[in-house]
Amino acid sequence: MKNFGEIFRKFRESRGLRLKDVTKAGISTSQLSRFEKGETDLTITKFMAILDQINMPIDEFMYAAHDFHRDELNDLLEKVRLFVTTHDVEGLEKLLISQMEKDSQNEKFHQLNTILLKIRLQDLSGDTYYNESDLTYLTDYLFSVEHWGNYELLIFMNTLDVLKHKPFMILSREMARRSDFYKEIPTNRRLISTMLLNGYITCIERQKFMDALYFEKQLKQCFFIETEIYERLVFQYAQNLYHYQKNGTKSAIIEMRKCIAAMKLAGSNHLAQTYEGHLEKTLASK
């Protein structure tokens, strides 16, 4: 468990807890002491039990164990967002090259992350980077995973716009079932909401209005709380996009512009810029 014992000791001591305060988890004082010194490992059951004793979530501990860096995919996505909002094709291309040259302990996840970068770079630049075999590899992986976690949700929500419509819809419906165990985790709940919003907009753009209603129904069941401003604004934007694309409702344009204005008012300028560009592209295509 690498330096898990040392990290655990720091968190235990920072909470003013003694070794014997943690032994209520069914582990002896001597065994816990040896674990903290790096002399022995613990079973996953005992490790989770002692984390409970110091009131520390596993994701918080793992964040510290990774030197307060997020996992590789989240780091990549943060860089992608920056390059896309600044329209930095060269920067994103260098990131792809760096990813392809990187040695990885897990070839499968390395390839999936690379495919994601290819998709986003092609969307940004207009040049060809991914091919049909890349999309097949991506969809085969997603179909093969019985229970979706954080990784699968992130991969899907950031690539769904390029998938063929039939597998995209099958995966979207399966997503609800395959991530069912994780919906109550706040982070995953927001990821699922964002995926549904992306899927909703993608169906509207493809003129698949019946399928769009499926996403609208799912989104209405999310019960966005008042602090989830981003989700509320994008949902309202997407609903008006639906009315404009399907019925040509002119007032929907005004409502979409109001959503963008609210984003600017909140200081989310990059987000507003993204939806402003999306709206102008939509209007130009009519």
Automatic annotation (TrEMBL):
InterPro entries: Cro/C1-type_HTH, HTH-type_regulator_Rgg, Lambda_DNA-bd_dom_sf, Transcription_activator_Rgg_C. GO terms for molecular function: DNA binding. Pfam families: HTH_3 (PF01381), Rgg_C (PF21259). It comes from the Bacteria. Residues 8-61 form the HTH cro/C1-type domain. SUPFAM superfamilies: lambda repressor-like DNA-binding domains. This is Transcriptional regulator. PROSITE patterns: HTH_CROC1.
